[in-house]
Amino acid sequence: MRFSELFTKTRREAPKDEQAKNAVLLSRAGFIYKEMAGAYTLLPLGLRVIRKIEGIIREEMERAGGNEVLLTTLQSPAVWERTGRWSDEIVDNWFRTVLKDGSPLGLAHTHEEPLTALLTHYISSYRDLPRLIFQFQTKFRNELRAKSGILRGREFVMKDCYSFARTEAEHAVLYQRMKDAYTRIFERAGIGEHTYFTRASGGSFSRASEEFQTLTDAGEDTIYIEPDTHTAINAEVLDETLLAELNVPRERLVEKKAIEVGNIFPLGTKFSELLGLVFTDESGEKRPVVMGCYGIGVGRLMGTVAEVLSDNRGLVWPRSIAPFDAHLVRIRNSKLEISSESHIHKAQITNDVVAEADGLYAALQAHGVSVLYDDRQDVSVGEQFADADLIGLPYRIVASEKTMAAGKYEMRERRSGAVDLIGGDELIRRLAGHRD
Ligand code: ATP
Ligand code: MG
Fold it and tell me: Residue 371 — φ and ψ, nearest 5°?
């Protein structure tokens, strides 16, 4: 992608009403646009990150045996009335609407009810189980506060997955598979070392849940981490009984702020009993399906990476989810206007730099390296570098007269700041050789 053709705009200043670091950085770097509190549009750079995150999640869900579906966002109240969750007393964040004929509808805030009801049409025998079903779907939640940027939206994309098993033992196998998949997802997205497997409360349908909590001061949760085992306990469930059960001495725990990037819930048979999802087992007996549910906020994950891995110059993307692998900066000739004599000379060299940079751009792409190529003529070198830092691609490559004269390019790693002067072939080898 040529920068001159990229639909975005970087800004020195954050939107005035934006407090959250993730949204400030992502807005300034031109990844997102704030439509209103809690609702953000994805611009091309942001959408590329979201697509890559979805790609990682999809791979891990499919590796675990998941089937991808896409349920509707419009939801009929009937099925929610059967579990009691159509009520505002039980679920306080419904967005509702009405049809022309006056009948009420809900906008999806989650999908346990519709999916369980749907499966009654497809599951009847032990041969139809187990199943893991997932989707990437837009959820609407009328959140009370929406001050955490894309960490808490009123409209956001969630990956939700639901498991359906014949027995508790079979459920436990699926649950463990999902737990492993989540561990890999957060690892691959670059926040593994900051993310803690955390015991939490179960809400209305579960005994207990487990959360994946990423340490950040932007987080709304308080957790107690156990550094040796990289596990944690959410403050909402911390008590003597649980400490005894987990065999963790209170004094080893350290209090931290964290954001829940994902969670996994055993649901037992509550939904299947209320909605009639039963199967006939090997001995001909009818039994309710044992369920689990597993969520990840896709935008929240992008925002969490923005919070956790950025520095004072801007975003810092791990290559696995970066919108592009490398940022190629072609530096224009700054002395172009100095004298008429050198004008001709320098303009000639500039053309060579253009040809050189164009060639590298094509060669990198031919080797599977995605490149944002800053080919702009009308901005200063300072602005080009500031934009590269702000956008935060893993590698910045500079093509200038100076580097060309040495037959090399300057390559800088965004995260460490390490700089190398290397030839084109070596550069391609290094970038093409690296895979997450
Ligand atoms: P929280 O405790 O943060 O309010 P939750 O417990 O309501 O979240 P779930 O209903 O289990 O979350 O949703 C699954 C995942 O969706 C969460 O782990 C989180 O990553 C993400 N998520 C939840 N609410 C939001 C939101 N308002 N905006 C963005 N992502 C969200
Ligand atoms: Mg929660």
Answer: -130, 135
Q: DSSP secondary-structure letter at 377?
A: S
Q: Residue for token digits 């999802």?
A: 277
User: Can you tell me the distance from the alpha carbon of 60 to that of 168, in angstroms, rounded to the nearest whole number?
Assistant: 23
Structure token digits, residue 41: 């549009």
Residue 289 is classified by DSSP as P
Half-sphere exposure of 215 (CA within 13 A, CB side): 16
* Residue 1, SS3 per DSSP: coil
Q: Which of 212, 226, 190, 218 is nearest to 305 (CA)?
A: 190
pTM metric for this prediction? 0.95
- For 106-124, the pLDDT digits (tens) are 999 999 999 999 999 999 9
Does the CB atom of residue 38 touch ligand 1 within 6 A? no
Hey, what are 311's tokens? 């520095």
Q: Supply the residue whose CA is at minimum distance from atom 30 of ligand 1.
A: 297
| All residues with CB under 5 Å from ion ligand 2 | 260
Measured in whole angstroms, the distance separating CA 97 from the mean position of its chain's CA atoms is 29
CA-to-CA dists, residue 37 to 99, 293, 301, 422, angstroms = 26, 28, 18, 46
Q: What is the DSSP letter of 120?
A: T
Q: Is residue 203's pLDDT more than 80?
A: no
Cα 48–54–55 angle (5° rounding)? Answer: 90
Report the relative pairing of strands 254-268 and 419-422 from DSSP bridges.
unpaired
Pocket of ligand 1 contains residue 295 by CB under 6 Å: yes
CA angle 73, 49, 148 (to 5 degrees): 70
CA count, 13 A, side-chain hemisphere, 71: 28
What values do phi and psi take at 208, rounded to 5? -155, 160
Q: How far is CA 58 from CA 136, 159, 276, 357, in A?
A: 9, 9, 29, 35
Instruction: Quote the tokens at residue 66.
Output: 């998941």
Q: What is the CA radius of gyration of the chain?
A: 26
Ligand 1 centroid from CA 394, angstroms: 29
To the nearest 10 degrees (0 to 180), the angle between helices 298-309 and 44-63 is: 110
Chain centroid to CA 308: 12
Rounded distance from Cα 256 to ligand 1 centre (Å): 19
Calpha distance 97→105 (Å, rounded): 5
For the chain, the distance separating the N- and C-terminal CA atoms, rounded to the nearest angstrom, is: 21
**11-69 pLDDT, tens per residue?**
998 888 899 999 999 999 999 999 999 999 999 999 999 999 999 999 999 999 999 99
